[in-house]
Amino acid sequence: MKTSLFKKIRHLLEGLIAGFMFVLFYYILPFKACVAFWGWIARTVGPRLSLSKRARSNLKKCFPEMPNSEIQKTIVEMWDNFGRLMAEYLKPQVFWDGKSLHKIEVIGIENLKQFQEDGKPGILFTAHLGNWQMISLAAQSIGFDLTQMYRPPNNPWMDALMLKCQKGTVKNVITKGRGGPKEFLSLIKRGDHALLLVDQKMGEGIAVPFLGHKAMTATGIAKMYLNQNCPLLPARSERLYDSHFRVTFYPPIKFVSQGDQQEDMYNLLLEINTMIGQWITERPGQWLWLHRRWHNS
């Protein structure tokens, strides 16, 4: 009983602090000041946190030839990118005002338009690179509203605040939980489109190489492609400088089934993991190395 009460009080205090910060950065401070502040806080404090040990371990695992000085530089860049995107997350109207895009360079828009108009359901997939929310804003610029999975925090006050921010960049949200996967499948079956981040560890997935090491990988996206005739469109966000981005929409994945469900799933997921791994290798400081992506990481 006491534990439950203390937990509720803690959640309320966290919510009040987060609410105060939201009002300060959303309504009072200008955009550039918000981004600069959060970038400075993140790159100053983040590398000193114990959490950065996991990032360092992951980098050494994937890039064993990388010098320690470069690993440290990459960790600082990762935190700086993360801090900046948190501020950018609060003010999506800076990038998309409902009429035109700002600070976002788009490549491959023809691939996105074809994906939108082919008469089929579809999954646009990406990774925690750059600021991935720029992808949904770029899609909105051609009148394309995507649905995205949302993982709620345990704190209900934080959940309400984060959901408000989430819906600023993605109009349609499916909450992860018991009913989430069924709702997602229903969405695909009725011909809609979704945005998925597919670079996180999934305990119920299968082991597929990722950056040179086997990693548990969710099979849902492969099942949708193989069983629901659901096209898959790769999309990538890159931070060019400050709060300027490049969003690239690649041609759809063209995978030919060999008739063996398990082998097909493995090979398709390998193709996806390889593509994302190439993006990360090109800009390692823009990926979130904090995930427990590999066993013992």
Structure description:
The protein has a domain at 90-286. Helix content is 50%, strand content 16%. It is built from 10 helices and 9 strands. Strands 1-9-8-2-5-3-4 form a 7-stranded mixed sheet, sandwiched between helices. A two-stranded antiparallel ribbon has the order 6-7. Helix 1 (2-28) runs parallel beside helix 7 and helix 9 (220-228) packs across helix 10. The longest helix is centred in the first third of the chain and has 27 residues, at 2-28. 31% of the residues are buried.
Keywords:
seven-stranded mixed sheet; two-stranded antiparallel ribbon; alpha/beta
Short précis:
Helices cover 50% and strands 16% of the residues.
Query: Percent of residues in beta strands?
Result: 15-25%
What does the main sheet amount to?
Answer: 7 strands, mixed
Helical stretch tally: 10
Number of strands: 9
The dominant shape is globular
What would the average pLDDT be, to the nearest integer? 88
Name the strands of the widest sheet in spatial order.
1-9-8-2-5-3-4
Terminal residue distance:
36 Å
